[in-house]
Specification:
By secondary structure, the protein is of the alpha/beta class. The chain is built from 11 helices and 12 strands. The model has no long low-confidence stretch (mean pLDDT 93).
Length: 330
């Protein structure tokens, strides 16, 4: 079996990916935290530590780089660049030292910025926050690495939209929880589209490209289609949970005003709040992306978006996540 290191795989996506491919590849997880499900496969380390990476990649044949600083409220902001950019440089140096020529990198549609008109992979980068900027800089670093030996190196970049699924505690979970509670406050008209990707499909997409890697460069947006707008999402929650969910609409300007208020409170108190101006802005933005390349490359998603939402809603709100293990968003 091929030896593969999954960097940053103790979290949400990495756990699902490991479970999917553990019988097909010889897996090593390299992460600063122990994997709750695959402790025996975990080597503790940090992408900012070159020596640890050099040792971890001995005898490996491919790398999946999942590690990233991704939250909206990372402080100091230099951590985005220390981990996402310099960490990528460190991984590539360790790969070169150990003769590893194949890497799959999870980037983000955040490289395009907000409110773009269904961008495909050729759309110019225009990131609006430090996360998106650092991911784009990491992509540039990877391109430079590939260009030094394009006939013998393999680079696959996957730009997923927001990822959701069982055990996740990110923005989509918080949104679904609020909708399911029946106390949902809709900011705006609810006609803005929200692209999403189910973790089971993301894991399967990465697995597909591990099995079908080839020299050169490939880049894919990953979004599960068709996109839902906010009103559609509320309707899907109603259907899956078999309950009527009333929603109150607030104008965008009022939502942003509230977000700025929480920003001020956060700075004054040092506390982090669920509401912020950035989150309101992202909530009301249209995040719709062209994923035809991903869905026409030979890959077939094992789940529909509706199935992914149904699985998540039942796991979290009907079955109540009985093992109690959760992950932050990635």
């Amino acid at each position: 079996m091929k030896n593969i290191t999954l960097i940053g795989a103790s979290g949400f996506v990495g756990t699902r990916l490991t479970d999917l491919i553990k019988d097909e590849f010889q897996i090593k997880i390299f992460d600063k935290q122990q994997s709750p499900f695959f402790q025996g496969l975990t080597t503790l380390g940090d992408v900012r530590n070159q020596a640890e990476l050099n040792n971890a990649l001995q005898g490996q044949e491919a790398v999946v780089l999942l590690a990233a600083e991704h939250r909206d409220d990372v402080s100091p902001t230099s951590l985005y660049y220390d981990v996402n950019v310099q960490g990528t440089k460190n991984v590539l140096e360790a790969m070169d030292k150990n003769g590893v020529k194949n890497i799959i990198f999870t980037s983000s549609v955040a490289v395009y910025g907000l409110n773009k008109q269904n961008p495909n992979e050729e759309h110019p980068a225009d990131p609006f926050n430090h996360y998106g900027k650092s991911k784009w800089q990491a992509e540039e670093v990877l391109q430079e690495w590939l260009n030094k030996d394009p006939d013998n190196r393999s680079l696959t970049i996957i730009r997923p939209t927001v990822i959701f699924g069982e055990r996740n505690r990110g923005n989509v979970y918080n949104l679904l929880k609020q909708i399911a509670s029946g106390k949902f406050l809709m900011v705006g008209k609810g006609t803005n589209f929200k692209s999403m990707a189910y973790v089971g499909n993301i894991a399967a997409f990465i697995s597909y490209h591990l099995k079908n890697s080839k020299p050169g460069y490939q880049v894919f947006n990953y979004i599960d289609k068709p996109d839902l707008n906010m009103n559609d999402l509320v309707a899907q929650v109603e259907k899956s949970l078999d309950k009527h969910i009333p929603s109150t609409h607030f104008p965008y300007w009022l939502g942003m005003l509230g977000g700025f208020g929480f920003d001020v409170l956060s700075k004054l108190t040092g506390k982090k709040f669920a509401v912020s101006s950035v989150r309101v802005k992202k909530f009301c933005a249209t995040t719709q992306f062209d994923a035809s390349k991903a869905h026409n490359c030979g890959f077939k998603a094992p789940y529909t978006l509706a199935q992914g939402l149904h699985n998540t809603l039942h796991y979290e709100f009907i079955n109540k996540n009985k093992d109690g293990i959760t992950f932050e968003s990635e």
